[in-house]
Write a structure and sequence with these properties.
heterodimer, A: 333 residues, Rossmann fold, 5-stranded mixed β-sheet, B: Rossmann fold, two-stranded antiparallel ribbon
Chain lengths: 333, 321
């Protein structure tokens, strides 16, 4: 099996789905890149190069460069989706959610309910988030908590190249609006990815490691950190379970509860400020439905209640580190 | 192009259905049978009917919070509409949408929209679908003068131009965005001027004149369907009532209110076809009687209809979750 990057895995999923289904189109800022310029159109493929090569293959009707108009991008994609296309719209940075949120939460996410079940909106919004690139407060957030609380939306947080491909193919084939939240810190991560198309179902957690002493639940870019923490703990004889829910909506509550029943200890690692975070959400799940099994308070490893800082040492301190995860597990033992 | 007698009857039936429906909504709202808010389309009938007259179920419209008239003009059944607006079982949206979110996908009605400026980006997408599939269908975004100032609308206008989609922006300028006059809030001489700045052709027409709106819409459709991109119509309308049913309208002077009522699209249609001897007044009276009877029956039936089952509270959120 080929080892390819998270970036390439996403690109491969898009290419294979576009080849399979003519209704799949891409639209967003520079998804082709260079439209209207004097050089090579389609030479860029997005600011991170994720869609590179798709414009030359599929052309301007299917890889649509748009103006920098996020509301119109997301709204047009929603309108195209509800009338029969399967658009994959790119919201370059999830930080730009603020300039298009209405079209997501008041429009696309609510069509089916408001219209009495008569609408289908197979829309995928690809976007990237996360700190670590020294990009400062408006280019570094992970806004999955805001998206996860919206009924009608599904939210995907892939943590590896294998998951990125399988979950994106699932998202494109899904009949509901899906936000596919890529971690930009993972774009160069490599892993084994099958060449052929495959789907990973939503709402089914990935049991990355099983151990009896504690359960670590981690999302997106926090999953590799949780695995590093698990390795460090193993050296001290502490064997933990690491669960990656893969999707925050739907959330595999059963897997989390099952594991907490087994281990009695829960640590949630979430790249988000703590209030109303997935960490708080999963902690509440355990407190309300597995209280009797808990042998220690739930550990919540999150960012502080601050914007993402710019200075590298501050940004590093903002992020949940392997050391903080290890310490949080040890505090429950 | 000359309209046939059947066309004229169809137009009058649609306009008068909106009139009778909205008058009944006003009454039902006063009776307390309509929960929430109700924004009626009285005085703007010629605009919606003129725009939708040549559209089919396969053309799309996106609407506004003042959307009942657009629904009727696009062919939605008033029985299902009354049920919906009263929050009853069997409503077009199962009682989950209500007046401000009423939609009918089967009729190409992409929803009233309680977010001012919510529809134009969606209509760009509906039009993009037509362009990519090579159909000769179009999408229409109805907006008011209020939505003409929303960023979403302006983004959508530019996007529609650069993607060259078959779309018509219809700005029903009824003089007020809620309680604030468009003379105050719109910093352009006309909304057609604003459209021109985006690089699309536009016309401003008398929105109380069905024939003027219809003729302008034919130009717009011809443009959009020939692959030349979007078009804008500004229909200058009069809002008979306030922003919502029950608005005392103290911000409008008595003369203005009287003028608005005097510029009645229904009586203007009657005068026009009467003067030109296109239809007998008796024929129009017959249409009115039949429409009133249908509206009364639909409203009465909706009043007696059951509320939606509580079992539907959590259905229809997702296709599959």
């Amino acid at each position: 099996m080929a080892r390819i990057s998270y970036r390439k895995a996403i690109n491969q999923a898009l290419e294979q789905e576009m080849a399979r289904d003519p209704n799949v189109i891409l639209m967003g800022i520079d998804v082709g890149g260079g439209s209207g310029g004097s050089g090579d159109v389609g030479s860029v493929g997005g600011v991170m190069g994720v869609t590179k090569g798709l414009y030359p293959r599929f052309g301007p009707d299917r890889v649509i460069d748009t103006p920098i108009s996020e509301s119109a991008i997301i709204g047009a994609a929603a309108g195209a989706a509800v009338t029969g296309m399967r658009p994959v719209a790119e919201l370059m940075f999830v930080d730009f959610l603020g300039v298009c949120l209405d079209q997501i939460y008041n429009q696309a996410a609510k069509f089916r309910y408001m219209f009495g079940g008569k609408a289908r909106t197979p829309l995928v919004i690809r976007t990237m988030g996360g700190a670590g690139m020294r990009a400062g407060a408006q280019h570094s957030q992970m806004l999955h908590p805001i998206l996860t609380m919206i009924p009608g939306l599904k939210v995907v947080m892939p943590s590896s190249p294998y998951d990125a491909k399988g979950l994106l193919i699932r998202a494109i084939r899904d009949d509901d609006p899906v936000v596919f939240l890529e971690s930009k810190a993972l774009y160069d991560m490599k892993g084994e990815v099958p060449e052929e198309a495959y789907e990973i179902p939503f709402g089914e957690a990935n049991w990355l490691r099983e151990g009896p002493d504690a359960t670590i639940v981690a999302f997106g870019a926090m999953v590799p950190r949780a695995m590093q923490a698990a390795d460090a703990l193993a050296k001290d004889g502490v064997r933990v379970t690491v669960l990656d829910p893969r999707t925050t909506s739907p959330l595999d509550e059963d897997a989390i509860l099952e594991s907490v029943e087994d281990t009695g200890r829960l640590i949630v690692v979430d790249e988000s400020p703590p209030r109303c975070s997935l960490a708080a959400d999963v902690a509440a799940l355990a407190a309300s439905r597995a209280f009797g099994a808990l042998k220690a308070p739930v550990g919540m490893v999150t960012c502080p209640h601050t914007p993402v800082p710019f200075a590298p040492n501050l940004e590093d301190a903002y992020m949940p580190s392997v050391e903080r995860i290890v310490a949080a597990v040890q505090a429950t033992l | 192009m000359q309209l046939s007698r059947d066309d004229l009857k169809r137009a009058y039936t649609a306009m008068f259905t909106i009139r009778a429906f909205e008058e009944r909504v006003e009454k039902e709202f006063a009776d307390g049978t309509i929960p929430g808010f109700a924004h009626v389309y009285l005085g703007q009938e010629a605009s919606g009917v003129g725009v939708c007259f040549d559209l089919t179920d396969d053309d799309w419209i996106g609407s506004t919070h003042r959307g009942h008239g657009h629904c009727i003009a696009k062919g939605c059944e008033i029985e299902g509409m009354f049920l919906e607006i009263m929050g009853r079982e069997g409503g077009i949206c199962g009682g989950k949408g209500g007046s401000m979110h009423i939609a009918d996908m089967d009729k190409g009605m992409l929803g009233a929209n309680a977010i001012v400026g919510g529809s134009p980006p969606l209509a760009v997408g509906a039009a993009l679908t037509q362009k990519l599939r090579g159909t000769d269908r179009v999408a229409v975004a109805f907006s008011g003068d209020g939505a003409s100032n929303q960023g979403t609308t302006l983004e959508a206008m530019n996007m529609a131009v650069i993607l060259k989609v078959p779309m018509i922006f219809v700005f029903e300028n009824n003089g007020y965005g809620e309680f604030t006059a468009s003379d105050y809030s719109v910093g352009a001489a006309s909304l057609a001027d604003r459209a021109a700045a985006f690089g699309m052709p536009a016309q401003t027409v008398d929105g109380a004149d069905f024939f003027a709106v219809h003729a302008a819409m034919r130009d717009a459709l011809e443009h959009a369907r020939s692959g030349r991109g979007p078009y804008t119509l500004e229909t200058r309308c009069s809002r008979f009532l306030g922003h919502f049913v029950g608005d005392p309208q103290k911000y409008r002077g008595p003369e203005e209110l009287a003028e608005a009522r005097a510029n009645d699209p229904i009586s203007r249609f009657r005068d026009r076809v009467g003067e030109a001897a296109l239809l007998d007044m008796a024929e129009l009276d017959e249409i009115e009687s039949a429409v009133r009877a249908r509206v009364d029956a639909a409203a009465a039936a909706a009043r007696e209809a059951p509320m939606p089952s509580l079992a539907t509270l959590e259905t229809d959120v997702y296709v599959k979750y």
